């Protein structure tokens, strides 16, 4: 029974829609007048997966005050992004439960009364093992000035949790990145993001 409750607890934790993220960023955004600046997104390929990820990036750029354009010749900035879920890391949760042998015997007292005496003898621990997988993931984004080729922003978000699907992680990880868009350059921050669809 205890093992079943423990397994239920592990499954509950695994289904909790939050994951820790670490955000590292280098920028000179504040030294540039970026409000309303045009950005063209440098797509890596023509896949539907990339199109969905670029759409998610475009939404965050708009929310940050940029204007998205398809004209690479007139855009002030070029945004490029990579997103990857790496090979899963196998882990194991071990639960040790002490087990006892219970012995009962009838004892006669001096006054003639009889009582039941109980003795618990430790037999050792029962070991239950519950394997699970953690998935490292990384999203990197760079904003580059088109005319000079100089980077204006470089950001990287990393996480490791029970979700191994980038389609579910891309939005929350980009949200974490853009919360730090104008932080001091060279900072590393940690937080948690919700991943409700994984």
What does this structure look like?
The protein is α+β, with helices and mostly antiparallel strands. The chain folds into two domains: 18-91 and 130-194, Double Stranded RNA Binding Domain (2-Layer Sandwich); 96-129, no CATH class. Helix content is 22%, strand content 48%. It contains three helices and eight strands; from the N terminus they run αββαβββββαβ. Strand 6 and strand 7 form a beta hairpin. The chain is rod-shaped. The two termini are 29 Å apart. The model is unreliable at 1-14 (pLDDT under 50).
Mean pLDDT: 86
SSE class: alpha+beta
Radius of gyration, whole Å: 28 Å
Proportion of residues in helical segments? 10-25%
- Counted up, domains total 2
**Count of helices?**
3
CATH level 1 name of the largest domain: Alpha Beta
Oligomer type: single chain
CATH level-two architecture of the largest domain: 2-Layer Sandwich
Instruction: Kindly estimate the percentage of residues that lie in beta strands according to DSSP.
Output: over 45%
Principal-axis shape: rod-shaped
The number of strands is: 8
Order of helices and strands: HEEHEEEEEHE
Distance between the amino and carboxyl termini: 29 Å
**Spans of at least 5 consecutive residues with low confidence:** 1-14
Pick out its properties.
198 residues; alpha+beta; Double Stranded RNA Binding Domain; 2 domains; eight-stranded mixed sheet; rod-shaped; disordered N terminus
């Amino acid at each position: 029974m205890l093992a079943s409750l423990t397994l239920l607890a592990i499954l509950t934790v695994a289904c909790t829609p939050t994951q820790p993220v670490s955000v590292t960023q280098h920028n000179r955004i504040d030294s540039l007048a970026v409000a309303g600046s045009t950005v063209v997104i440098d797509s890596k390929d023509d896949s539907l997966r990339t199109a969905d990820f670029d759409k998610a990036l475009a939404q965050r750029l708009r929310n940050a005050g940029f204007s998205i354009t398809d004209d690479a010749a007139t855009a002030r900035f070029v945004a490029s992004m990579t997103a990857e879920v790496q090979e899963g890391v196998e882990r194991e949760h071990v639960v040790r439960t002490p087990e006892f042998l219970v012995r009962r015997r009838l004892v006669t007292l001096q006054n003639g009364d009889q009582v039941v005496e109980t003795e618990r003898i430790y037999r050792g621990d029962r070991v239950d093992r519950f394997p699970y997988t953690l998935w490292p993931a990384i999203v990197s984004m760079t904003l580059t000035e088109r005319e000079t080729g100089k980077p204006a922003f470089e950001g990287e978000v990393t996480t490791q949790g029970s979700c191994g699907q980038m389609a579910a992680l891309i939005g929350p990880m980009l949200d974490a990145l853009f919360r730090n868009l104008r932080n001091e350059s060279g900072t590393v921050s940690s937080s948690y993001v919700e991943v409700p669809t994984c």
